[in-house]
Hints:
The protein is an alpha+beta fold and about 750 residues long. Among the domains are: about 25-40 and about 480-735, Alpha/Beta hydrolase fold, catalytic domain (Rossmann fold, 3-Layer(aba) Sandwich), CATH 3.40.50; about 50-150, no CATH class. The protein is about 15% helix and about 35% strand. It is built from 12 helices and 42 strands. The two termini are about 30 Å apart.
Amino acid sequence: MTLVLRVLAILSSLALCNIALGQGSKADYERTSNLRTQARGNLLKGWVEARWHPDGTQFWYQNKLGDGQSEFVVVEAATGNRTVIPNGSRLLRALEESLEHEFKEDEPVLEAVLLTEGKTALLRSRGKTFHYSPTTGQLREHGEEIAPSRKSLQPGGGTRQRFQRSNHTSPDRQWKVEVREGDLFTKPTEGGEDLRFTEGAGLERVSIFWAPDSKRFVAFHRTPGEDHIVHVIESSPADRVQPRLKSWRYTKPGDRIAQTRLVLCDLEAKKQLPLDHDLFPNPWSIGNLRWAADSSRFTFLYNQRGHQVMRIVTVDSRTGETGSLIEDTPETFFNYFQKLFHYYLDNRGQIIWMSERDGWNHLYLFDSTSGKLLNQVTRGNWVVRGVDRIDPEKQQIWFRACGMNPEEDPYHIHYCRINFDGSGLVRLTAGDGTHNIRLSPDRRYVIDHYSRVDLPPVHELRRSEDGSLVTRLEEADISRLQDIPGWSMPERFVAKGRDGKTDIWGVIHRPSQLDPARDYPVVEKIYAGPHGHYVPKRFYDFFTAMDIAELGCVVVVIDGMGTNWRSKAFHDVCWQNLRDAGFPDRIRWMQAAARKYPYLDLSRVGIYGGSAGGQNALGALLFHPDFYKVAVSDCGCHDNRMDKIHWNEAWMGLMGPHYAENSNVTHAHKLQGKLFLTVGELDTNVDPASTMQVVNALIKADKDFDFLLVPGAKHGVGETPYLRRRRQDFFVRHLLGVEPREN
């Protein structure tokens, strides 16, 4: 009897332990539900909003310290000396009383700060100037005005070029182009004989671009494409009982699109000049037309449908002869979404052009007359992430880069400057993290903000001349976040991909009450859309993956091959192959993580995602059922023939058999595991019929699955509170094997 009682006591103790560390328990749900709201506003010193004195010698910012407290900090730019005005909340109350104005939450309190020798502050707020003593809290109005400070400039600003705009009237104001019954005419503005340039052309939607000397013009006209109309039924309108039909234009891959054609007209010859269209036969787009200053030629940018040709075409305006000035013709795709950049340096007769021709995204300098490559501006096994500013006078380019520091995460964004000839590279940022900078109005100083998922924000003042550090301004305070039940910081993790050589980066989210002696199912949050990368790189007070992790799972987020901002070869994996979704890399990454952390139970792996991630989540069960067991798929573009044309043709190219081969509908009969499909009936981003066709195919294949069509909902319905809870419940039931909130 004594032995039996001891065994019962041990079993009871183990049961209580399981309840205390329960997975999917009521307590787990309660912690999870409060995380979002509790985390909000509890990251202190997460940003420095600098406001500069007009002479650029000084700036100030406000630190909010929680519980209604704040401080103001004044910084001398040259030395980095910081002076803190404490009790900012007391100053705020004094200003509100003096100004008879209550400041809103995000309203700037001060317009300028200038410290006097006596360490009293001279302040400007809402057009009035005050003396303030931080010691006594006394505030008195000052008689003289001081100039308001200015926010620092964002990087960029001056780089966007304006290409010639359409204008039907000639530069010399002597001629005006008219379109009558589909044909081109020019008419003298002061009266006289019209000139006719086309006969029965049927022109529509015409744009006119005149040569500077007013002797010739180019007409761009658009031939219409087909109207692909998507129809849905709004089942539960708010304003009536009966359903309503809704329709919108939605062009899909393979549809006939509107195309731009060119007509070159010569007023002196009084005729249309023939143009050879061989260099621009099947345009996705034609634009960015520029006439040479001497009117001898014009150029335009041609993006061929299928996105395997990107070309600057040059046209001799006297003969109509065409030539290719600069072009990229990759075997896979030219990423016109994020990597199209060209800048004309007219005074130098040069063009800066962005290209992945050497396998990495870099900048090149070309002669704008001959098209000859003068030099490669940036080079190396890293990528230019974007151009912020071109300085023709100093012959410099300010740009962002990823992967420049081999010892860091290759997705970290750093800021740099380089000369046109590729010399004089200056790295403006240095910390191990992903960066965001603000420049002083005179561009002499950089305020650098950087962080990682496992490093709270750091704010530094640097010199833009050489990137050297002036002073560290602030480090974010996360102590209040760490006090929140259920809050925990993710871990960065890197492992080799399918080739055994390439680093694959991701993060791991654990339950805050993790017990390494227990086993935990793994849930992957996925989005493998080729236009970006999706593993978070910055620090956040709350990560959505915490919603699942805190219930008793380990949640991972991974960037596999086929996603953006690594090498061209890394990205090319997606070409006509969206079903791949980097799964071979993701699986190897999780296997490596499980070797390091044995409590990761890879016999219980779930996955979820929305949109492209919804396509990926279902694809996991169709193509890798030996590894993935449970999936929640929201508003997926399950068949790329059903989704928007520009996104899908960018990675899948022209219509062909590969579209069907990549479709989840085609492979729906292979379904294994537990699946929950969701979609909003009014999704205007991804045709909801894409999900319904998967449902149809699954029914025909006699497959069991869960499905929810949400009335009145649009794209991303899976991230609404109701469906987030349903997603949690689905994983708890099928991965943890318990009924949600059961105890």
